[in-house]
Amino acid sequence: MAITKVTSGVRTLGTGEVTTANILDGTIENADVSATAAIASTKVSGIVASGLNSVQTFTSSGTWTRPASITKVIVYVTGAGGSGGPSEPGVQNGGGGGGGGTAVKLIDVSSISTSTITIGAGPAGIAGPNGGGGTAGGLSSWVDGTNTLTGNGGGAGRHPGNQVGGTAVGGTLNISGGWGGNANGTAMATGGGHSYWSAGGMGGISVGTAYNGQDGAYGSGGGGGCDSTSGDDSGAGGDGIIVVWEYK
Asked: For 29-57, what is the mean pLDDT?
């Protein structure tokens, strides 16, 4: 049905044209429109759907392979958290491990087919009391031949003093992990540093049976162990993680 633009004056409707008088019940039906004025639908070609298509999450090392039709990705690379420090002899509580750093970047992967994925390992907790500290977390990385993103692991928890979070490099946005808490010999050990994804493990306390530090998750640091005759181990650092948001 042709549409005529009226710029001025009054135009008389022709045969087969729809008017409000033709539509008494508020809907357009076959009886309201003549065969010569049938409404046709037209398929518009050449338009390609775009936007977020899929998400891949890596919790172990391997290879990212670009899916068909994907042209861009946003990559988050997070290093592992450090383990907390165990208690030390003489009523000395352990400090939390540092959180892993996170590098974030938008990458055009039109000419990139694969990327090497490395996931940093979160170290195990340490049995106490032993007078020593925890263990630093491992680094995570994305390497595609053009771009290298690295999330460094968090530092090892200890007593006394805070333990630094891991740094990040290669991203458009580089986020350092949170620091582990500073243990000071009070009734509570301190928690691990936060990562981009998760809070750190809580430190052990001298109340009830929660003497051991809690484990970190997704790059966060483990909690420190509380000095006790019942349990004083530190929490493990959370493993690193890489998340890839894939766009058409």
From this structure: 57
Return the closest-CA partner of residue 159 out of 135, 177, 185.
185
Q: Taking residues 42-54, report their average pLDDT.
A: 62
pLDDT tens readout for residues 213-226: 889 999 999 998 88
* Cα gap 100→194, rounded to integer Å: 8
Task: From 145, 140, 78, 139, select the one nearest 115 (Cα to Cα).
Answer: 145
Q: Which residues contact 180 (CB under 8 A, 6 or more apart)?
A: 82, 84, 95, 96, 97, 98, 99, 154, 155, 157, 162, 163, 165, 190, 191, 192, 193, 200, 221, 224
Return the number of other C-beta atoms located less than 10 Å from residue 231's C-beta.
16
More confidently predicted of 189 and 102: 102
Angle at CA 35, nearest 5°, toward 29 and 38? 65
Q: What is the pLDDT of residue 47?
A: 43
Whether 94 contacts 191, CB under 8 Å: no
49: its two tokens:
């759907």
d(CA 80, CA 156): 11
pLDDT band, very low/low/confident/very high, at 147 (cuts 50, 70, 90) = very high
Name the region of 128 (left: φ>0; alpha: ψ -120 to 50; beta: rest).
Answer: beta
Assess whether the previous peptide bond of 160 is cis (omega < 30° from 0).
yes
